[in-house]
């Protein structure tokens, strides 16, 4: 005597508790043998679907014993149940339960993906099955493009692809017209003739008549059973794939599915991405701007040399407003020049833009008033002529020293310009000399676009007042620059009676720049993190929506043999794809903004690190915020998921 392939003993299935308790199955005993064609009939609500879900291991009985091929289902964990579903059973549902985003052939392939069949094999097999079921050339159609009868045949092909022994069909003709119903029943008969075991659920006695054995169920109890007619020859399954797909297959399939479902909701996907995109683009662009401006300022101060001290008017901590504070005078400069270790203390005062004129040539530049010590402090020589003298400064003589850019714009022959006159505000200034060329700084400022006049002459004729905007002090021995700074400070304190000036050296200026740049970077970092956080919440939100929207899909996947981990991986991968896409688009936009700003003349420093960092955070955002929805999806109950709308 052969053993039954399915064996139920005293199965109870109770829904709800207390008052709301429903006893959907109440002590069912049933044996199904290999190769049988069984129809289960009963009124609506009699417990047929409940029984079928238990038979297909989508649901577990409240009590009783269920053996599949001799193994006790209640002792299997969820992965083993998934394996059993995809190797032993093929499901056909009343509502077809095809995934609408993917083609007919891909629907058929689904259980084979979870069974680890190679892409070529499963595609060939899907097409072969579709051909056999009269769907030649329909493999590429989406379910929506097929009739009900055709969709149900796609579902049959899906039930067959893993070559499971048992086909479970729950009201498969329920949604079909009579012609399609008849075709489907013939198909089931053929499958039965080829040796498969078929359990068909229906409320229609005419449909049940096609089966060899009819079982009637009412109020959760079997009230009639024709009894088993054990066939001599049973179906030998050709291909029992008990393998699991490799992680690579799993992930590449998930990535494919992710793109599909994201494409199916393009607008929503775009909105979700926006948060991540803005966050990433902000990080990339802001860091490049921050780094660029830091490098620019650093380069400016480094080019000044390490032996300079600067004095500016205004109490420490106040904003430097240059000549608006009338505390720094030429007498201060004279006293500073008397200090030890001081090579030259040079006063400075600049005009905003002024017009220089020679004949009909006009040139706009900024005029700087300095003392005769300027070349010493700046260590810059002359190309032609000489710098103005101490006497020129004392006597407020109208002389000017020009950079080559200025001279080139005013004179046809720069070499012959020494001794010529330049008009500034109607007054003639004799050209004393032309400065050595120095070229542009690393941040693009032309150091030859200068016009220097004696500070005293400037105070009288150009600036209109007698105080200074800064004093730069060149020291001899930089090792004792701190002491020199101290003595300069006490000197000015003694002269002013109050600390109404600021004294810095190049090193301390660099330090404070770095400090403020770091604070700036921290600020940028927090802004960026917040936008990524917001982006992440967007991702989570959309994934949660996606999970509840696709509950049915998840149910179908579980029914066709997906394990919890398969579902989990799929949703995590989807979130990662969202994060990754957001990252790529964000990095591109960020770099684009940088290039535009650089084109406009802003100093930008683009490096790989912020881009990589931002992209990784986008991925991490996807992962972290995708995890919860993915877990929710993987914990869904297959029966409840399938029943959802
Ligand atoms: P059939 O498929 O024969 O129409 P079902 O197996 O779907 O019947 O349902 C049997 C009984 O169990 C019905 O009374 C139904 O209301 C109840 N039932 C089915 N599923 C649930 C559920 N998830 N929660 C509560 N009651 C349920
Ligand atoms: Mg039902």
UniProtKB/TrEMBL annotation:
PROSITE patterns the UniProt entry points to: ABC_TRANSPORTER_1, ABC_TRANSPORTER_2
Family matches, as SMART domains: AAA (SM00382)
Subcellular localization(s) per the UniProt record: Cell inner membrane
Record membrane topology: Multi-pass membrane protein
Residue spans crossing the bilayer: 266-289, 522-547, 568-598, 604-628
Domain ABC transporter: 6-244
Pfam families the UniProt entry points to: ABC_tran, FtsX, MacB_PCD
Highest taxon of the lineage: Bacteria
InterPro entries noted in UniProt: AAA+_ATPase (IPR003593), ABC3_permease_C (IPR003838), ABC_transporter-like_ATP-bd (IPR003439), ABC_transporter-like_CS (IPR017871), MacB-like_ATP-bd (IPR017911), MacB_PCD (IPR025857), Macrolide_Exporter_MacB (IPR050250), P-loop_NTPase (IPR027417)
Keywords, ordered alphabetically: Antibiotic resistance, ATP-binding, Cell inner membrane, Cell membrane, Membrane, Nucleotide-binding, Translocase, Transmembrane, Transmembrane helix, Transport
Protein family membership: Belongs to the ABC transporter superfamily. Macrolide exporter (TC 3.A.1.122) family.
Protein name in the entry: Pyoverdine export ATP-binding/permease protein PvdT
Organism: Ponticaulis profundi
């Amino acid at each position: 005597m052969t053993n039954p392939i399915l064996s139920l003993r005293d199965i109870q299935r109770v829904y709800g508790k207390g008052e709301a308790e429903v006893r959907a199955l109440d002590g069912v005993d049933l044996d199904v043998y290999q190769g049988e064609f069984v129809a289960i009939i009963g009124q609506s609500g009699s417990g047929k679907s409940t029984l079928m879900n238990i038979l297909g291991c989508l649901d577990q009985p409240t009590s009783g014993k269920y053996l599949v091929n001799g193994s006790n289902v209640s002792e299997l964990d969820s992965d083993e149940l998934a394996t059993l579903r995809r190797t032993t059973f093929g499901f056909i549902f009343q509502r077809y339960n095809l995934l609408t985003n993917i083609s007919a052939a891909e629907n058929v392939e689904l259980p084979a993906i979870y069974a680890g069949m190679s892409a070529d094999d499963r595609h060939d097999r899907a097409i072969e099955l579709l051909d056999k079921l009269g769907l030649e050339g329909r493999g590429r159609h989406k379910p929506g493009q097929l009739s009900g009868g055709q969709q149900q045949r796609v579902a049959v092909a899906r039930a067959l692809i893993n070559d499971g022994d048992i086909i479970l069909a729950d009201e498969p003709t329920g949604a079909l017209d009579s012609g399609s119903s008849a075709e489907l029943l013939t198909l089931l008969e053929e499958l039965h003739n080829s040796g498969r075991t078929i359990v068909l659920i229906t409320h229609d006695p005419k449909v049940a008549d096609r089966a060899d054995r009819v079982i009637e169920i009412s109020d959760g109890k079997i009230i009639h059973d024709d009894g088993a007619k054990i066939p001599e020859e049973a179906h030998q399954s050709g291909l029992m794939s008990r393998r699991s797909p490799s992680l690579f297959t799993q992930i590449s399939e998930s990535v494919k599915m992710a793109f599909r479902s994201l494409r199916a909701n393009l607008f929503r996907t775009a909105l979700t991405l926006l948060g991540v995109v803005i966050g990433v683009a902000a990080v990339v662009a802001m860091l490049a701007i921050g780094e660029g401006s830091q490098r620019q300022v650093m380069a400016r101060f480094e080019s000044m040399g390490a032996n300079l001290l600067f004095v500016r008017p205004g109490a420490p901590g106040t904003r430097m407003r240059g000549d608006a504070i009338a505390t720094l005078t030429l007498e201060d400069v004279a006293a500073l020049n008397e200090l030890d270790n001081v090579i030259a203390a040079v006063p400075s005062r600049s005009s905003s833009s002024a017009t220089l004129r020679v004949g009909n040539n006009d040139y706009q530049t900024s005029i700087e008033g300095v003392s005769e010590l300027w070349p010493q402090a700046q260590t810059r020589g002359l190309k032609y002529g000489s710098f103005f003298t101490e006497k020129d400064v004392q006597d407020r003589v109208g002389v000017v020293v020009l950079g080559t850019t200025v001279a080139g714009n005013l004179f046809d022959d720069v070499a012959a310009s020494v001794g010529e006159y330049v008009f500034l505000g109607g007054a003639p200034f004799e050209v004393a000399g032309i400065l050595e060329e120095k070229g542009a700084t690393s941040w693009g400022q032309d150091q030859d676009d200068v016009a220097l006049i004696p500070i005293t002459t400037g105070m009288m004729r150009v600036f209109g007042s007698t105080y200074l905007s800064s004093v730069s002090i060149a020291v001899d021995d930089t090792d004792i620059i701190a002491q020199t700074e101290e003595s300069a400070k006490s000197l000015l304190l003694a002269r002013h009676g109050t600390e109404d000036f600021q004294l810095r050296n190049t090193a301390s200026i660099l330090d404070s720049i770095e400090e403020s740049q770091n604070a700036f970077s921290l600020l940028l970092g927090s802004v960026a993190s917040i936008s990524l956080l917001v982006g992440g919440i967007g991702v989570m939100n959309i994934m949660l929506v996606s999970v509840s929207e696709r509950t049915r899909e998840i149910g179908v996947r579980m029914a066709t043999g997906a394990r919890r981990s398969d579902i989990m991986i799929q949703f995590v991968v989807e979130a990662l794809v969202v994060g990754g896409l957001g990252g790529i688009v964000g990095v591109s936009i960020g770099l684009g903004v940088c290039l535009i700003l650089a084109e406009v003349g802003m100093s930008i420093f683009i490096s790989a690190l912020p881009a990589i960092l931002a992209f990784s955070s986008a991925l991490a955002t996807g992962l972290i915020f995708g995890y919860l929805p993915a877990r929710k999806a993987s914990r869904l109950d297959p029966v409840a998921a399938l029943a959802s709308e």
